[in-house]
């Protein structure tokens, strides 16, 4: 164990336990919304601090494992913290607290008259615990459990309010998620039958001794399951129809986090269990198609929420690009880009919620003149939009440049094709967000084809009421300070990723170096690094 062994066993379970215990507390105080809110925000703030400490310790001391209940591996539950999982935990916890503040500011409204906040808060905390459980899992079964916890919570959050549109989207989302879970469960069964274990460290030792055909089949099944969850083309069609119907904070946290859990699972299994295999080329092709199909879908949209949902799919392709390169530089670029995209995409969806509140619509056919009526809103949109488009010197440019450099270093025809596709996708992303800016913010609303149907109001910032009976009908067009403040804070964190790009890239590079050496993970979990005979590395 590392020098911090005395502290880490205490900290490692807390990102899961704190939200789940807080969820139980919010259920107890279901009729006391102020207490519910205090419990939720306190718990999520504590998780941010804990995850910051975990990243510091993981970067200082390296990969560390905890055997829950002191059971020997692989009998008990194994939690593992390395630079990758700690970074994912910290970024996700920042997003979760920002979205929770945003949701508290609007009381989970968005023009809908039925918003059961007493259900929303405990469910949101359960979602937080599930995300953390997935990042910390040291075996495939508990990775599956983490997925199922966050998916069960997401089913409730997606349909909060009970409108017909949300129920319809929720049914589609449930069916796709159940299919992915069944495929994942089948992959778990195949893995255990072939190796006799589900512990990732033991699998890294044993998977090379499995016949090549069986090993390929196992990876294919797992890759399909994770590809659905990550919305990788051609398994991404479900996402644009599911996410835009939910309330703004729910859509934001889904867009920022849920697909990235799938990306994390792809990174972990590919680097630890199936490095340098024949699937690298398949991942590169899927990454290219994900980029291009996603951004072409975004160009065709006239609703900002659907447009951003397609850009979400598109930019998953950049992360798969880095994984498929299977190099230290490629993985470092993928890790950095995951952190960048979580922050920027979440911020953009929060801004869209403010646009809908301000103008009564997210359709580009009805919007216009928002830069004049709400300059602050314009700035909050412009900064993450330019970041998403990859304009220098933002973190989006830095992440893409890192991936392009890794592709150029690879030198293969397919890698250079990905480099060209990445540049084209970035230019089309910039065109897409520029179109939103020119139509929603720059042109006069009177020039919009359906501008007369919009409900734009004079902007105003008001202090957020702590009373859940706060009703936007008494403050038409207003933007509560807590909503604006949490959105602005997330935009600032995204800018901090730019300012601190050097140190963060160095952490990403160290994380990628660890990922490229399975022995680091195996040693931390099992205490012995040797790979069994027949394993391919």
UniProtKB/TrEMBL annotation:
The chain crosses the membrane at residues 6-29, 41-58, 84-103, 143-161, 173-196, 216-236, 248-267, 279-300, 307-328, 334-355, 413-434, 481-505. Keywords: Cell membrane, Membrane, Transmembrane, Transmembrane helix. The keyword Transmembrane applies. It is a multi-pass membrane protein. Residues 137-425 form the NADH:quinone oxidoreductase/Mrp antiporter transmembrane domain. The keyword Transmembrane helix applies. InterPro entries: CPA3_Na-H_Antiporter_D (IPR050586), NADH_UbQ_OxRdtase (IPR003918), ND/Mrp_TM (IPR001750). GO terms for molecular function: NADH dehydrogenase (ubiquinone) activity. GO terms for cellular component: plasma membrane. One of its GO terms (biological process) is ATP synthesis coupled electron transport. It is found in: Cell membrane; Membrane. PANTHER family: NA(+)_H(+) ANTIPORTER SUBUNIT D1, NADH DEHYDROGENASE. Belongs to the CPA3 antiporters (TC 2.A.63) subunit D family. This is Multisubunit sodium/proton antiporter MrpD subunit.
